[in-house]
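$ ./design --mode recover --in tokens.txt
reading tokens...
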């Protein structure tokens, strides 16, 4: 088994850390890998969930948290990279890691540095777990305005580093087949084959034990519930989802739109008048991770629409696997990640090709057919494609294959 240093600029006490980092690492530790993680924790989340995480990782993972620095912009990130690099070097000198597993681009700066620094003394393998196309996501999400010379230079820097990471990594991990195809088409990488540029696709996976599909019995006189799960930030199209719900009310006037989100309710409530939606038709609630499955299972169908862009070729929505694991059909939009491929393969609800009233009405006309699909069938999609156990096994295969190479 391998000694692994996992580097994450996201925190274990963040919701993402609990759903998309810790479950994998606990599974890999269970197999026998010796896992150390450096993560960046936001003080409020750390204070709230530190004890929960410490209980989960006790005697299984060596957790080395560092506090995330928010301000000033840019300089705070440089400081955090320095903190991560310093801690990683110290730990590698003591533990002699076999693998540096880097989650996304900020962490990969440190992984690349360690691989170069120790190549003749304490050699280490480098995994670039890129997730999505991070630099392009910052631009497409309007977080980096390329007309600003500072952001323009930062973008160009990370696009250069992106190529470096891909060429230096012993394995690159993407979330989608779409992203892999895109990378292998890049002009500056065209001479590299899939053998000399090893890329493994591992989608966002789901704990199908936590997210089960046994529904509560008391469903008599329950209104029809459309649900949305997750944050409402940069990428999720609240207006379009509310427009869909307003169309649904024409057919199902008793319907309720239930938002399970940590975000400010005003993001939703400020928009409902535009679509003539009564306030009593909207439910907004926060939930800890362990509470989410029951809230999902209480809904009849779920929905999420994501802004489409170049960078979204590399995105995999965790919530899709979580919802399907609970046996709930899902309405999504195409032209995002592997959504079109997945819908064609599994047909787990409805795929909206365009954001228009005509498209929404067409889905609503077919609701009875969508809702007729057995919950077990929907859950089997999650078990087949989004299974956490399969994800852990794929990571284990990567760990084994790269360290077996001379």
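writing sequence...
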């Amino acid at each position: 088994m391998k000694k692994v240093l996992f580097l994450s600029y996201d925190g274990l006490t963040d919701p993402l850390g609990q759903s998309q980092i810790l479950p994998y690492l606990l599974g890999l530790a269970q197999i026998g890998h010796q896992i150390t993680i450096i993560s960046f924790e936001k003080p409020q989340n750390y204070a709230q969930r530190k004890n929960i995480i410490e209980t989960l990782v006790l005697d299984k993972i060596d957790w080395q948290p560092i506090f995330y620095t928010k301000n000033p912009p840019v300089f705070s990130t440089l400081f955090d990279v320095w903190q991560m690099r310093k801690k990683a070097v110290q730990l590698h000198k003591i533990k002699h890691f076999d693998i540096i597993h880097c989650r996304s681009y900020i962490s990969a700066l440190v992984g690349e540095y360690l691989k170069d620094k120790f190549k003749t003394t304490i050699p280490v393998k480098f995994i670039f777990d890129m997730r999505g196309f991070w630099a392009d996501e910052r631009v497409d999400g309007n977080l980096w305005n390329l007309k600003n010379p500072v952001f323009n230079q930062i973008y160009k820097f990370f696009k250069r580093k992106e190529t470096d990471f891909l060429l230096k990594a012993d394995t690159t991990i993407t979330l989608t087949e779409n992203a892999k195809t895109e990378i292998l088409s890049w002009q500056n990488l065209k001479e590299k084959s899939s053998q000399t540029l090893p890329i493994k696709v591992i989608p966002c996976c789901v704990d199908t034990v936590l997210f089960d599909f046994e529904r509560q019995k008391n469903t008599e006189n329950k209104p029809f519930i459309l649900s949305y799960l997750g944050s409402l930030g940069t990428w999720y199209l609240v207006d379009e989802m509310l427009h869909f719900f307003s169309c649904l009310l024409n057919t199902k006037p008793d319907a309720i739109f239930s938002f399970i989100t940590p975000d400010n309710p005003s993001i939703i409530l400020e928009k409902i008048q535009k679509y003539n939606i009564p306030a009593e038709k909207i439910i907004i609630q926060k939930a800890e991770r362990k509470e989410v499955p029951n809230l999902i299972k209480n809904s009849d169908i779920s929905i999420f629409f994501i802004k489409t862009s170049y960078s979204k070729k590399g995105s995999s929505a965790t919530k899709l696997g979580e919802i399907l694991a609970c046996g709930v059909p899902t309405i999504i939009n195409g032209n995002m990640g592997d959504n079109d491929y997945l819908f064609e393969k599994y047909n787990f609800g409805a795929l909206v090709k365009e954001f228009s009233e005509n498209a929404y009405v067409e889905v609503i006309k077919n609701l009875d057919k969508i809702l007729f699909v057995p919950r077990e069938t929907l859950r089997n999609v999650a078990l087949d494609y989004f299974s956490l156990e399969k994800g852990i096994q794929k990571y284990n295969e990567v760990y084994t294959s790269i360290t077996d190479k001379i």
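exit 0
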